[in-house]
Every structure is written in structure tokens, then in C-alpha cells.
Amino acid sequence: MSTEATSRAGRTAPAPGALLLCRAEPDSVAPAARLLRERMLLTRAGEGWTVLVPEGGPWRRGEEPVDRVMTGWATALAVGAPWPVLALWWDADRGGYTLASGFRRPVGYVWLANGTPAGQDEAMRTFAARLALDPVLDVQSLDHLTKPDPAADAPARLRGLLAVLTRAGLDLPAGLAPGEPADRLRDAVRDRPDARPVLWEGPQDTVRGGLEAVAGRRLTPWLPWSGDPKALALALAQMTAGLPLAAWGLRHRSGGWLTAGTLLLAHGALGVSYALAHPRD
Asked: Which is higher by pLDDT, 144 or 72?
């Protein structure tokens, strides 16, 4: 066995960990994040970016793989917000990301623990397009991450991904590095002056507050209490999409996808109930 191979084989496999990166200001992200009903810490991560650090998660109890949970959480956040959500995750066997944006199908990429690419190149191009990255410079850097590199393991691949995003304003706080265990990630942001806990406050206030926070004036006609026909159409679409997602999550015991489906159903039910209680003249 070569010296390089021996060195890589002797590395300690990373414990499961994850981060949620939202391309929005913290004040917009906080109300939406409460809908996940998970304890998290939230802090700014550069110009126009926010990072959510889970304090726990089903993967820590061995109930569900970290990648499945994070995909569901990213999807749940993105369906009710006008900004994209990027989930980064890693465990002893793999590392990867999932990018969720609105109702579009999430896109992701996976690397094996030793850094071997295990995704489709097209996913990287879709990733760049949805985040409006540079179609030449950034796409070339992302394409490099899909090529074999004996010197780069999965955490190194994720760090390379984050390096590309720094050109889009991302600036992660010190200590939030792929490959770190969840406890170290939490400790890295706990004492930051702008860090705040994300706590669920109850269904009705959280749903309404989350929608108002992430929508803004531009999306006011789509809010349940706007009285606009668009609101009812959106509510019905949310319920139509949420039911199969929740059923799939329940059938496969996936807390992440169950959360996404439940969130859609809650949003839709709120819109429909408001429309029925306040019919237009």
C-alpha cells in the first residue's frame, strides 16, 4: 500500500453532520425555519446568506440517514420561500448536498467517503443555474469537483463547493466546516453575537408569520388572507403536492419528507379554510 493510501486509510471517518444554507437574510429565514419543529441555531453567513445549524436530528439517534433528513428539511423550507435552500451533509460513508428551490425538483450530488464522485455532472450545471453562478468560472470550478482526485475526500469536496459559493457572497463562520461532528458545529456558532435559537411556537402563528416573513410585498396576492384568487389556487396546489409527499414520508419512515408534506398541507389547508370563511363578494 502506498504512503498516500496508508495516510488516507488511517483518517478517522467523520461523524454525521449537516448544515442548512439559505440565500436570504436571517430575519426572513427565522420564521420559516421554525416550521421544521427542530432545535437549531441560526446566524448570518455572509452577504445575503444565513446558516442553520441543527442541534440534533434523527441521524444522531440512528433513526434515519442524514442525507434523507436534510433533503426533506431543505425541501420543506424552500416550498414556502422565494429563496433557495442548500443542505450539506456528511457521514462515515458519503458526503453531498441537496439544493431545493420552490416547487422544482431538488438537485443534489454525492461523493463517497474517499472523494470518489457518485453523482451526475448535469446536477452541477443545474446547481449553478439555480443559484445564478458564473456560467464560466464557477461552472469550471464545479466541474472539477466531479472529476477523480486522489487527494480529496468527501469533506474536501464539500469545502471546494463552499469555496465556489464565496464568490456569491457566502462567508461561513469559523468552525463550520464539512466533516465536523454536530456538537462542534453547534459550539462554533453558539457564542456568536448574532446567533439565535430557532424554536417552534405553535402552528397558526408560525405558519402565518413564516409566510409573511418569506413572502414580502411582491408575493402578497399569494397569501391566504389577501383575498386574491391566486391565494386559493396556490393553497389547492400545495395540498395536492403535500398529500403524496406526506404519505411517502410516512410509508418510508422519512421524517424529512414527512415534514415537507405536512408543511405543504398546513399551508394549503390554511389558505383553503380562509377562502371558505371569507368568500369574495
From this structure: 144
